[in-house]
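[job 4471] stage=fold_predict status=RUNNING
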Amino acid sequence: MFTQSTTTLALMPDWFSPDYLLTEFGGYVIVGLCLIIFIESSIFPVLPGDSLLFTAGLFIANGSIKSPLWLVCVLVTVAALLGNVVGYLIGYKAGPALFKRPDSRFFKQEYVEKTHAFLDKHGPKAVVLARFVPFVRTFITWIAGIGKMDPKRYFTYTVIGGILWAAGITVLGALLGNIGFIRDNVDAIFILIVVISVVPIVIEYFKGRKEKKLAAEQAPDPEATQHIPRVTD
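[job 4471] inference complete, writing structure tokens
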């Protein structure tokens, strides 16, 4: 069925490769593709979502997958968005149970408060950029739910991220997959995408730490102010 392949990381088993998965799905290839994207976007992070989407686009371009590109883009985007809804609800419902005991050994209420503050400040960028980072794209949905991120705000940006990721990478596969160098280095390219996606988050993190440290240094010392002699008439 499929006549053109991509190269995957040597550390991954053959049955985990996009080529193998898409081939094994046979006539249910679109159903299988959407199912994997849904699962990776909601509950199970160890799946080749990036390279699977790219390879699907490549197979559409060379005719191995007969479904039109626009339809596949719509379906995988919907699967990604539904996955995010489920992930958010898991965090939203499970969060209170995990953090209801402030003195728990592994979970503390302050973690929820810090998560809430982080999402309030970086939420939109984090939700969109997380789509391009394996593992993070799964966990960010739980964190958003646990942190009680505003649903309207969350779903607005998860739609943006879902379209850019699911539809965007599928289209890239269709447009660029037939270029030999790109086809043979799919995983290396996605590692580069991950690095580029993480850089803004890392910069924001260190910027926040620097600002916090600077604010602490400029704050008056409580002990010093206690010893300042009072002037009396």
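[job 4471] summary: The CA atoms of residues 157 and 166 lie 14 Å apart.
[job 4471] exit 0
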